[in-house]
């Protein structure tokens, strides 16, 4: 008959006689958990066990989700908190942003500044699913041609009212007007709401020159124009400045008589009559005593 295999077992081993196999995870982590009651954060395993995020990105994402609302999470603040440098922290933030755990939005503050806000998303997948199920806005129903309202003439853009008249200097020197123009052009550095156009600056420059002409320093003029602005915002900064320059115009300085020049001081000369030294505008003159004696009979 056929060739026999001498290494084949005579009979199959029973299940009871098999040796127990050692598990590959026998040396893995063992959790000694205690239930948290205070100061804890719920973070999903989709972040802590993410297959594509780096370990630094996962740890940084968990840290950001545990922070209170309003805590700074910019690169500079995080680099001051952790030993990793700004380059590694910036790369981790880009990873979190690419996978939807962070979102950066540019918003305008009430003061008019543009700032960047960081929004932390603990479930990016749920947000994307909610956005995909949002119903599309209903399209307006078509109206019959016969019932279409008559076309209206488009309204002309509303013109701004002209600025009120402002004070003017008594002597509009070019250097004084140039200094006033530079002061107005730099107001936006102290408050971004006071950004003026070229026409508004040219209209307000004579009023600032009138203040400077009345012995008011540029620092005092700038302080009068930039302090105590309305908290709700400035709708038209040029009109506000024109009102302040007119209503708060300081009085002219008191009259000062021009100072008299000191009398001339002549050189010392020797009198030809008595050899006395005296001051005289011309050489060869005589002193007062010699002139008096010469006039006597």
Keyphrases for this structure?
mainly alpha, two-stranded antiparallel sheet, 10 helices, 34% helix
Percent helix among the residues?
A: 25-40%
Low-pLDDT windows of residues:
1-5
Radius of gyration: 45 Å
SSE succession: HHHHEEHHHHHEEH
What does this structure look like?
There is one protein chain. The protein is mostly helical and 297 residues long. The chain is 34% helix and 7% strand. The strands form two sheets. The chain has a two-stranded antiparallel ribbon with strand order 1-2. The protein is elongated and about 145 Å long. The N and C termini lie far apart (186 Å). The N terminus is likely disordered.
Which secondary structure elements does this structure contain, and how are they paired or packed?
Layout: H1 45-48, H2 55-65, H3 75-81, H4 86-98, E1 102-108, E2 114-120, H5 124-132, H6 174-185, H7 198-213, H8 218-226, H9 237-247, E3 268-270, E4 277-279, H10 288-295
Antiparallel strand pairs: 1-2, 3-4
Helix pairs in contact: 2-4, 6-7, 7-9
Task: Please sum up the structure shown.
With 297 residues, this protein is mainly α.
């Amino acid at each position: 008959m056929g060739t026999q295999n001498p290494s084949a077992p005579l009979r199959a081993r029973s299940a009871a006689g098999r040796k127990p196999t050692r598990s590959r995870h026998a040396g893995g982590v063992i959790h000694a958990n205690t239930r948290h009651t205070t100061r804890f954060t719920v973070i999903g395993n989709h972040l802590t066990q993410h297959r594509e995020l780096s370990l630094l990105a996962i740890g940084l994402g968990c840290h950001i989700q545990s922070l209170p609302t309003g805590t700074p999470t910019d690169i500079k603040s995080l680099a001051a908190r952790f030993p990793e440098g700004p380059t590694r922290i910036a790369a981790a933030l880009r990873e979190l942003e690419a996978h939807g755990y962070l979102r950066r939005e540019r918003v305008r503050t009430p003061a008019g500044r543009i700032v960047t806000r960081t929004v932390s998303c603990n479930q990016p997948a749920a947000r994307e699913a909610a956005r995909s199920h949002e119903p599309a806005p209903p399209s307006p129903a078509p109206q019959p041609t016969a019932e279409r309202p008559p076309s209206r003439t488009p309204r002309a853009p509303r013109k701004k009212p002209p600025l009120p008249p402002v004070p003017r200097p008594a002597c509009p020197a070019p250097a004084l007007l140039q200094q006033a123009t530079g002061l107005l052009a730099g107001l936006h550095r102290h408050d971004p709401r006071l950004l003026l156009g070229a026409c508004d600056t040219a209209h307000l420059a004579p009023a600032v020159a009138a203040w400077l002409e009345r012995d008011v320093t540029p620092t005092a003029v700038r302080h009068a124009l930039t302090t105590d602005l309305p908290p709700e915002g400035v709708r038209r900064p040029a009109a506000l400045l024109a009102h302040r320059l007119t209503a708060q115009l300081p009085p002219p300085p008191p009259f000062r008589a021009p100072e008299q020049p000191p009398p001339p001081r002549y050189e010392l000369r020797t009198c030809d009559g008595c050899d006395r030294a005296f001051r005289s505008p011309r050489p060869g003159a005589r002193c007062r005593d010699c002139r008096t004696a010469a006039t006597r009979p």
